[in-house]
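Good morning C.,

I know you're traveling, so I'll keep this short. The sequence:
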Amino acid sequence: MFDAIFLQVLNMSFTASFVILFVLIARLLLKRAPKVFSYSLWGVVLFRLICPFSFESILSLLPVNAKPIPEAIVYAATPEVDTGLSALNRAVNSMFPAATPNASANPMQITVFLGRTLWLLGIAILFCYSVVSLFRLKKRLKGSVHERENIYLSDALGAPFVLGFIAPKIYLPSSLKDEEKQHILLHEQTHIHRQDHIIKMLSFFVLCLHWFNPLVWAAFFLSGKDMEMACDEAVIKRLGSGIKKNYSASLLAFAAKRHAACGVPLAFGEGSAKSRIKNILRYKKPLIWVLLVLAAAVLLLSFGLLLNPLSSSLLLNAKGVNILPESLKSSIYGALAVDAQAVELSASELNDVVEFITKLSVGKTETASRAGRDVNSSSQIHLVYEGSGKDDAFYNLYFYFNSDFSLVWAYNDIKPSPVYKVKKPQEAKGFILQFFNSANEKVNSAEDGDLARYSVSKYKSGVVYESYPLDNTELVKAIVMDSLLKSTLLKGADIEALEEYYLIEQVFPQENERHEYYVYMAENSEPVVQFGKKGMCTKLSSELYYKLEERFP
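The tokens, ready to paste straight into the viewer:
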């Protein structure tokens, strides 16, 4: 359980890091704007560091995968992360140790265990430091005097602060002058009214969880700085610009004094006086239209950072897959191959396969940018479409899968695409194998009554010369299967113009299907099998061709 939580925290911290970078850039652009806008953006960071869930949308501004580290990485034979950035994936994945066969523990299990232990140790140290600091602070506050309501005065304090969660108390130095007390008290009351004491404690809790991330530390301190300046602006807005000078003097009076609540999550006091004074002195209430524009910009930015990027895309839309949907939909021939088996697709099956490829969902980031030929490609979909040029050429499209259908890459006869992860490999595998189950029922049905019927005839000059009396179908089956196993297709010939050829007819009465295979010697003196009168052809084994000739002496 702790491993899963640890990996989830790593995922959230990774995603939040990019959100923090966005907020830091936005913070620079909003330098002259009211601090309430930059302060509100830190709420998105807080959400990202706490909540492991969000909605996926094309409107997301994040360039990375929201869950780069899968839980299964601990037990994976080849551990991999998918950050959404190919260069980062290759750099990180190359450092992971591969699984050791028959070992009592996977190397990644040991790595995650050590990381988890160090993470928990860091949390424990921060928690203990916080508890000790709080205990020491409360010890100093024993002599404080209750003035009124939730306000306390103490001679031991050098700076004011708020302490507490459900019923927060305001602690002020006894040495405060009346005017200073009015300003500082209003500032602390504004904090409480805006629930800043709760946000501060929650931020510290998040810091404890993500202590290993330096960007989270930066976010913790900068958000606290923006919180103080936003509160200052709220006080100036309420009391008027005329108090800027005196208010700044009040802050300056505490600048050189020790921070009483340092390191205590349930207590926070005043931040950097220098930056706060500069912000107060240059603060001017902006025009309404400026506020509206800033509010809209911050709202849109927050919305884009809250949403997760799409974790998948269609294969045809993936980078490097140079295949147009129009080419796919104009396919005139299709065949499937898995290991040593192959099947030819009927017209309806071809449409189903085209639709399958069109809707195939893959990961957005390639797992390998090298040529797909280097990857296990035990299964393939082979499609042929006719070009629209004057030469009426035929073009091949190939889609290759590895043995478990978890990876796919495409080849358009020119350049192979990168390799992508299939989002639902089991569904893809089931879809492809169903055609082989159907084909096996047809082709191998001789033992069960032979659903397929075969006939073969020899033609000369377009006229039947002789028919082959089929006492068995082994030869024609071998010819059909040999042709289907070939992945290279050639342009077929004009059957009616051939001087001599053989016609093999394969009929499935129960399925109402009929296939024609034309066997002939091509112009280069190599035997071929053509699928239909106007179809493509593949090379045929010379041995099978000569056996067929022997049947027609």
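Safe travels,
E.
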